[in-house]
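task queued by scheduler; priority normal; single chain, no ligands, no partner chains; default sampling; output format set to structure tokens
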Amino acid sequence: MKLWGDYKHPVLPCQALMMYEGLMNTQKKLIAGNWKMNGNLADAKALAEALGNPSNADVCICPPYVHLGVVATAKSQGIALGAQDCSLKDNGAFTGDISAPMLKEMGCSYVILGHSERRSYHAESSTQVAEKAKKAHAAGLVTIICVGETEEERVSGIQNQVVTTQLAKSIPDTANAQNLVIAYEPVWAIGTGKTATLDDIKDMHAVIREFLKEKLDNSSAIRILYGGSVKADNAKEILAAPNVDGALVGGASLKADQFLTIIDAA
């Protein structure tokens, strides 16, 4: 890689900025599969093995807690392991909880936090998401923090305010470009078959990028994923949109052929 001093001709400030931004945006896209509460042990093992060793994108799969062990053994070294949530606590009398250090010990590199299903079904607040993220960062995990508006909020025209408020309250002061990924998932497009238009995606990802720019150093290196009925037949178009640095995939990540097509689209 050339340094600025390696160029024979003078480099204007604007040219240097363009070169710098080009270098910053050369990282691979991240394709994360959220398996949610699906499959048995045999299914999990077979799916992990079927994904092989993709090289054109960073890939992370997030099975249910009870399948982490078998998936960690069955997957290739080129695929990262992630969890779907973690506890607010590191240890103690918290029946049913799984702590961030436990996940790290199981081989996890990532953890999804603040998914709309957690926010809705478990009344999880953005403040709690931030506290969980602190625990995850302390354990050495990369957090995929989810944000997104409901259909009612979008119809009301307040989607930008909703998402930036979620970001402000969900991202802790421990976050940086190395341990933070943002996933924009419009709630109305999760598991419904509905997909945001490309303009919807471009606009919101630009809003998120601007927010990150104002709040965090080296923000251009933070990947912003799109999630919400990402499928084999729409992934290429979505992943080509500006500020879309990958995808958080739900149902399609449970079928190896579809998930591999999405990975290839990256």
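post-processing summary
- The chain has a mean pLDDT of 91.
- The chain has one domain: 29-265.
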